[in-house]
């Protein structure tokens, strides 16, 4: 009888587990070099699913699976589409620096360069939200000795900071 109870209760317990979808972004404003540097940490399995949907093909975040250049192009395009700075001057540029694995996470590096003197910074972060509607993206903005955190959700994709 206990065995039968166990067989009935196990599926209920496994369906009750809840997976959390969270990414973190460290955003460093460097006014002396007119640059914003970004470090985004996402879970590799979640990012693989989002990147595959974005590219409309099955992508494996495995450097041996396809050429590094093609994979990097997909990642850079995804990054630029899902993390945007608003009201940039025409000379400002986005640079995807690279990516690496760290345990079960993929860490992405990028920058926005040749920025004008900023009085206000506004951005959107929709990483993984097209695949995981309950996704939460935490962005920590670092300016000199100050830090401020922002939470992005599907209902609140924009954030701003005034200098």
Can you offer a commentary on this structure?
The relative contact order is 0.20. It contains three helices and nine strands. The protein starts with a helix and ends with a strand. It has helices spanning 2-16, 44-55, 68-82, and strands at 22-30, 35-43, 83-85, 93-102, 105-113, 120-125, 136-143, 146-152, 158-162. It has 163 residues and is an alpha+beta fold. The chain has one domain. The chain has a six-stranded mixed beta sheet with strand order 4-5-2-1-7-8. The chain has a three-stranded antiparallel beta sheet with strand order 3-6-9.
Which descriptors apply to this entry?
three-stranded antiparallel β-sheet, 3 helices, globular, disordered N terminus, 163 residues, 9 strands, alpha+beta
Compact description:
The chain contains three helices and nine strands. It is α+β, with helices and mostly antiparallel strands and 163 residues long. β4 and β5 form a beta hairpin.
Give the arrangement of secondary structure elements:
Blueprint: H1 2-16, E1 22-30, E2 35-43, H2 44-55, H3 68-82, E3 83-85, E4 93-102, E5 105-113, E6 120-125, E7 136-143, E8 146-152, E9 158-162
Parallel strand pairs: 1-7
Antiparallel strand pairs: 1-2, 2-5, 3-6, 4-5, 6-9, 7-8
